[in-house]
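ok here's 5'-deoxynucleotidase, seq below lol
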Amino acid sequence: MASMAAPKANTLSPSPCNFQRLNYPHKNSLRIPFNSESTSPRLVSIHSHNPNLDSIKMDQTVSGFGSGSETLAHSNASSSASSAIDFLTLCHRLKSTKRKGWVNHGINGPESIADHMYRMSLMALITSDIPGVNRERCIKIAIVHDIAEAIVGDITPSDGVPKAEKSRMETEALDEMCKVLGGGMRAEEIKELWLEYENNSSLEANLVKDFDKVEMILQALEYETEHGKVLDEFFLSTAGKFQTETGKKWAAEIISRRNSRLANRSN
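and the structure came out like this:
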């Protein structure tokens, strides 16, 4: 009896993620990454190198999705992906544009618009439950409330732009961004959330409006501490303008800490 052939050595790379190239009858290949540390291959993503490929049919032994399962990648998926990346690239400006109020006060390396929106989103995430308030909606509103500034920039009172004109500019910018996204349900949701905030037309908008001010005075306190400045303007401009109990309590805590710090400095 012939001896059993020795098993072939594993030629896969030792890295956690290996790529297996599969050839299909249309002569274009799919590059599919698998996790080599798993006992059964796990499909991570599929990239077609054929721009005209209307669909991809995957065998269950490849996909790991169960008997008879298949994935269809329609041609409109590429346009949807293109719109999404165009939109996200435009939103990069939110990361690179510094908040003008801090720039005007000579803060070195000030926060960006995206920094501001991110911490507001965290505020919405960690706040206590409030009857009648949808906390998840608050998070969404916080994420999009300054999104039009990706086009118009951070317009502050010192710019002398009338409120109605600022609103018109930002509305047009938002419409343009929704077109870049390709319209549809997600674009409509962004516009609805943005308008809800602008019009202060819900309990969620009331709370996020307060978070906008809370985040600003918290940042002002941090810059006072880090840069040795006195930024009274930001505290005076928000005094008495908080609408919710949460906003009032959080603002009071920040002001209390600021007063203690100023008292310690004077001693």
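fwiw The domain at 83-266 is CATH 1.10.3210.10 (Hypothetical protein af1432). kinda neat tbh
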